[in-house]
Structures are given as structure tokens and as C-alpha cells.
Write a structure and sequence with these properties.
The chain is of the alpha/beta class and 366 residues long. The protein contains 16 helices and eight strands. The longest helix is centred in the C-terminal third of the chain and has 21 residues, at 235-255.
């Protein structure tokens, strides 16, 4: 047996975990930069909880709340400059995947001068501001990964910064911050987490330990399908989903993602389709592609979800995601050309060709 497992992040998953663990912030420095978006962190109470925790430890802070959906390199550079100008000692990222990914890039760029190409090179000095991350959606898992995903206009896609430097020191995971999320966002983020765990089990870097975590994550998400479909999402369901999301983040921290993510990035970049939704729109076609050469692994995944067959999986995703966007076939040609260049194409246990990618796009939308 061969295992590879590394998670340097202290994970605190509990109600009121920010308040209960405020003393852990003290050793990180005397001034924090809080990185978030304009709206949700104020509404769900997470920003106030962080402010109160910092005040209790007599830690000063500055606020960078300019993070947009699918953050750009420019936004990360602006945040890093703001951190440096104000002598921030550490970074607290609050939000969904966008603010957390931006916080990671800001922490890196605040300590290192990197060109746009160097930012994605994987070659860095061992210098970064310490990171604390608070997820406020149950989908991205960024609070426990070494990845930061930024919009990269040069590549006309989203591109990953990947380095162990980006692992947060602390992840504070509290389901109460997700209570006010709209149903659409709740579904899209749950599907994102589902995609992470499924892709982890279909990646060449998977191992038996990671499969256990992925199975637990998939089981919890699939157990929530009924409530997601009905819209009756109570606090217990939200706690299950954020737990599953964090597990899914641990999974992809070890395995990386597969072709589903490579393909989904073009749907987000060119058609502004939410990342989790984009993955969900492609998953059934990816299952069908893998099933041709490895039917046993797809049967295993369907069993975990309690689904009879691939048609049931496709129907469940269709019910969750609703009517699909209309996209021209010419776009799929372009998307396939972009996706085939991505590193995670080679991470699939069944590696697709460029034509396979095109066919999956067509199958997903037509």
C-alpha cells in the first residue's frame, strides 16, 4: 500500500468556532488584513465575528472588501499592495471560493515580487503571510487546499496557483454563515463539492485514505439531494454540506482535479456560468466517458450516491441545476482547444483526447 497525506492546516469545524478560538489569532501578528467581498460577510455575521475576535486579542486590522466573483490577477495585486502599505502581518479571508482564493494570492504577492507568468510557475521563495480562512459557502473547500484560482485573461481561462505555501494556518468552519444563502447558490456550491470528491476518486493520485474521505463527502451530499430538490434546507442539512465541502477540499488537496474542472473553466470565463454549476453540467457526460473504459468505478460512485444507474445521476443533476444554457457548437471547439492544454487533463484515470472533450461538451448541452 502506498499513501501520501499532508494537511498542515488546523481545521476547526464547530458552531461559533471563531469566537471560541480567538486566542489562536494572537500569535499570527499585531495587524490583520481581512479579505472579502462587498456584501455577504456583512450579512451573514462572519465579518463581525472576526472583528470581535480580533478586538478580544487587541489585534488591529484593515479591510480589503473589493473581491469580485472569479477574482482577477489585478485584484490580488491591489490587495497585496494594500497589505504592504499598511504593514499587515497576516491575512484573514472570509467568503466563498473567490475571497478565499484572492486572500491566498494576496498573502503570496505581499511577500514576493512575481510577474503574471511567475505567479503560476510554481517556483516561489519560502515567504508568505500567514493565512486564516473562513468559508461562508459549502462548496469550494479552499480553506484546506494549497490552490488559488484566478481569472487569467492571457490564457482566457481560470488558472491555478499551486504551492504548499498556500495552505492556511487555520480554517474556521461554521455552518451558521451559510444559513442565509439562496437556494441556487446552495445547490451550485453543493454540486461543486460533489464534483471535487468525485474527481478525486477518478484522479490518478487517489489512494485508499483519500477514497475514504471522498466517500464520506459524497454520501453526505447525496443524502442532502432530497432537501436540495425541495428547497427545505434546515440547519442540520447545512452543517452536513459544509462538513462534506471541507472533506472534498482535503480530497482535491491531495489528488488535484480532472477534466471536469478544465472544461468548466471555459463555461465560467466565456459564459459567466457559476463554477459549481459548470462542473455539474459536465459531470454526467464525464461519467459516461469514463464508464466506457472503467465501468466498475462509475458503478461504485453511483452506489455511494444510492442511484440506480447513470440515467438517474443525469436526471438528478438536471433537476438540481434546471434548464441549461444555450451554447453554440463553435464555442465547444474553442473550449476543447483550451481545455486540452490544462495540466489536470493528464490527471484523469481515463485520459480524454481533444475530441473526447468536444464530445462531452456537446453531450452535456445538446
Amino acid at each position: 500500500m502506498s499513501l501520501n497525506y499532508f494537511l498542515p492546516t488546523k481545521v476547526l469545524l464547530d458552531e461559533d468556532c471563531v469566537k471560541k478560538n480567538a486566542e489562536l489569532l494572537g500569535p499570527l501578528g499585531k495587524k490583520a488584513i481581512i479579505v472579502t467581498g462587498k456584501h455577504s460577510a456583512r450579512v451573514n455575521g462572519s465579518l463581525q465575528d472576526v472583528r470581535d475576535a480580533l478586538a478580544s486579542q487587541e489585534i488591529d486590522y484593515i479591510l480589503f472588501d473589493k473581491v469580485e466573483s472569479n477574482p482577477t490577477i489585478l485584484t490580488a495585486r491591489q490587495g497585496a499592495a494594500f497589505a504592504k502599505e499598511n504593514n499587515a502581518d497576516f491575512v484573514i479571508g472570509i467568503g466563498g471560493g473567490s475571497p478565499m482564493d484572492a486572500a491566498k494570492a494576496i498573502a503570496l504577492l505581499a511577500c514576493q515580487e512575481l510577474s503574471d507568468d511567475e505567479l503560476f510557475s510554481g517556483q516561489y521563495k519560502n515567504e508568505i503571510l500567514p493565512l486564516v480562512l473562513l468559508p461562508t459557502t459549502a462548496g469550494t473547500g479552499s480553506e484546506v487546499t494549497q490552490y488559488s484560482i484566478l481569472t487569467n485573461d492571457k490564457a482566457q481561462s481560470k488558472t491555478s496557483i499551486a504551492t504548499p505555501l498556500l495552505f492556511p494556518k487555520i480554517a474556521m468552519v461554521d455552518a451558521k454563515y451559510t444559513v442565509g444563502l439562496p437556494l441556487k447558490t446552495t445547490i451550485n456550491t453543493a454540486v461543486d463539492a460533489l464534483s471535487h470528491s468525485i474527481e478525486g476518486m477518478l484522479a490518478i493520485k487517489a489512494n485508499s485514505l483519500i477514497d475514504l474521505l471522498a466517500t464520506e463527502s459524497i454520501t453526505k451530499i447525496a443524502g442532502s439531494f432530497g432537501k436540495l430538490l425541495s428547497g427545505d434546507i434546515d440547519a442540520a442539512c447545512r452543517a452536513e454540506l459544509i462538513y462534506a465541502s471541507t472533506l472534498a477540499g482535503i480530497v482535491i488537496a491531495h489528488t488535484g482535479t480532472t477534466a471536469v474542472h478544465s472544461m468548466g473553466y471555459s463555461l465560467t470565463y466565456f459564459h459567466h456560468i457559476d463554477h459549481g454549476r459548470a462542473n455539474g453540467l459536465l459531470l454526467a457526460a464525464f461519467f459516461a466517458f469514463v464508464e466506457k473504459k472503467n465501468p466498475s468505478v462509475i458503478r461504485h460512485l453511483l452506489d455511494i450516491m444510492g442511484l440506480k444507474d447513470l440515467a438517474a445521476f443525469k436526471n438528478t443533476l438536471g433537476s438540481l441545476l434546471g434548464e441549461k444554457e444555450k451554447i453554440d457548437r463553435q464555442d465547444f471547439e474553442k473550449f476543447a482547444d483550451i481545455a486540452i492544454k490544462a495540466k489536470n487533463i493528464a490527471n484523469c484515470t481515463v485520459v480524454p483526447t481533444r475530441q473526447d472533450l468536444y464530445n462531452m461538451y456537446v453531450e452535456s448541452f445538446e
